[in-house]
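Flavin-containing monooxygenase, Promicromonospora aerolata. Tokens?
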Amino acid sequence: MTGTHQAARPDSGSRTVPGPGTAVDVAVVGAGLAGVGLGARLRRAGRTGFTVLERADDVGGTWRDNVYPGVACDIPSALYSYSFLPQPAWSRVFAPGAEIHRYVQDVARSEGLAPHLRLGTALTGARWHDDEAAWHLTTSRGPLIARVLVTAVGRLSEPRVPDLPGLGTFPGRVFHSARWDRDLPAGLRVGVVGTGASAVQLVPELARRAASVVVLQRTPPWVLPRGDRAYAPGEPRPDRAALAAEADRLFDARRAGSAAEAELRERAEAHLRAQVPDPALRALLTPDYAVGCKRALFSDDWYPALQQPHVTLEPSAPVSVEGSTLVAASGARYEVDVLVLATGFETTRPPFAHLVAGRGGQTLAEHWADGMTSHASTVVHGFPNLFVLDGPNAGLGHHSALEVIEAQIGYVLGALDHLDRADGPLDVSAAAEAAYTREIDRRAAETVWLRGGCRSWYVDERSGRLTLLWPGRAAEYRDRFARFDPAPFGVTDDHAAAAERVPILAADAWSSIETPQPGARPFW
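Tokens:
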């Protein structure tokens, strides 16, 4: 790299916030759990030449944005902190959202990230320049140049708003669950669109405050017992490593047609039978797809809330809004003062992909026209020195997202060490990306995510491919990708052949993986 735009080397990093046009070694986009975790590890590795761009005015990501009543983690709290910075004092088995947000803030503070944070700064564009081997970024607060670009924007950052005729003319309050109106008074008539994870948490709380609640359900969710409770003073917290190993065994229940899947379905059906005695209502709340095909939910108060006299379950989706009247597909009409859109997020087609242009000017959105692809769920051919955290096939449908995020952070740190010794940038080969994509597709074909008979946000709408989740155990992902391997980045035939030999776990090998003992009850 030559000229004034040469990206800063790790040993020349500044501890001050870069100004407009500044060159840094690493630019991280997003200050949620992934971005803050990477920042902490960069600091611990002695790398100070980085900046973290965050469009909001605080760190925290989804836990900063989602403040609706009842928001909480849906996996045990012990698994929802970094293994290198455990939180020993969660207040509950499932931590409230505000507590998780405070944890992310505390990490940013204790790890000295304040000088590296550029809050209130949105990424508006990023383009790779081959002649400089650097990324040129445009932001809402000026330009920035970086040797390495890391996106850490997450999958739950861009609310999905339904295209309902008349929605724009609704005279009352209307907002997405991730943009909660903190000043919402009690005693109103509330309509809730959606029955996903957010709705299952917030509807019981709304039922305590609203004059009436109507829940419009397109598809019922599978709901499992939650068993949440406060920890007693001085009570020992669960061992994180043991809990992680136990959670990983739950992947067996995501194998279509497995005994573990059948056992999980029986647990969900038993929970429904125990909490909903009315057979007609129970029928409306019984999904027609496999447990886990959509995101499995955990609640002990969802079903009871729906049976309260001032709460109505409408078993069809909304089709229009006429003044203050919400019209359902069934023809039913409901007068409401407030409309809450618990309608999920843009997941398989992330908006940030339109902003990032690699070699030849191709954007990530164009590269992903047939669904997101990558190698190791982290790097993409044609986008040198770009690392995508929590992106293609980086989620887990049975475990904590932090299991994969931490492995990806290790991969990035190893890549940075390699770049320090390399003559040029890192661009993973097309063969490696294609081989990894074939592996993902083969393994996904055996799971409930593709064979469970549902439509879900895990699956790309255009291609029908599983593009959000890693179709395996978290431990396997960590073993394979927590360390950087330079071989798939070569351009020789030998390197391409190595990429074709990516280890693949055959479907018939799954039966040899350790499974829970008969009669053992999963921890959630």
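Confidence is low (pLDDT under 50) at residues 1-20, 491-524.
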